[in-house]
Amino acid sequence: MTPYSRRQLLVLLILLAVAGLGLVVGHWRRAHPDLADHLEQLDRAEAPASSPELGGRGATPTRSSEEPMPRRSRRRASARDTGLDERTPARLDPPASALDLNRSTAIELTRLPGIGAVLARRIVDAREADGPFSSVDELRRVPGVSARRLEQVRALVTISD
């Protein structure tokens, strides 16, 4: 005779499976930050307005360009190491002039589109570990900088001589 009924064992097994799946997803996200970011961008894309003729419920409300997109707060040690306060908005205004990759701080790099606090810290760490960047294309040596992200920031960064 077991101390648990069949239903209780089934619930425990389901909870264990869900917890294991959560650990697997967390590991996958850490191993593939570019793909995880791309999938999150799909979530943030605006849905097309449905037409009444097709059985939709009318136009869906859209955000104005001034209204910021909501972001989930994430507590990570590397984000705290950058000196950014968690109450600081993640997206600041884009830089007025091109940022120098070899002189910019992690906080300044977060102003670039697609560069968050963690990736900015990785860029600074790569610069300190491997020396200054000699071209913008060398930004690809930083884990998490995809070709797409590099093209997003190419016009906004420069390399000092």
Q: What does this protein look like?
A:
The chain is an all-alpha fold and 161 residues long. The chain folds into 2 domains: 1-32; 77-161, DNA polymerase, domain 1 (Orthogonal Bundle), CATH 1.10.150.320. It is built from 6 helices and 2 strands. The protein has a two-stranded parallel ribbon with strand order 1-2. The N and C termini lie far apart (77 Å). The relative contact order is 0.10. Residues 73-94 have low confidence and may be disordered.
How are the SSEs ordered, and which strands pair?
Layout: H1 6-31, H2 33-44, H3 77-81, E1 99-100, H4 106-109, H5 117-130, H6 147-153, E2 157-158
Q: Low-confidence segments, ≥5 residues, pLDDT <50? A: 73-94
Would you state the CATH class of the largest domain? Mainly Alpha
What amount of the residues lies in strands?
Answer: under 5%
- Determine the CATH superfamily of the largest domain: Photosystem II 12 kDa extrinsic protein
H-E order: HHHEHHHE
Please give the radius of gyration in angstroms. 22 Å
What's the helix count? Answer: 6
Quick structural summary:
This protein has helices at 6-31, 33-44, 77-81, 106-109, 117-130, 147-153; strands spanning 99-100, 157-158. It is mostly helical and 161 residues long.
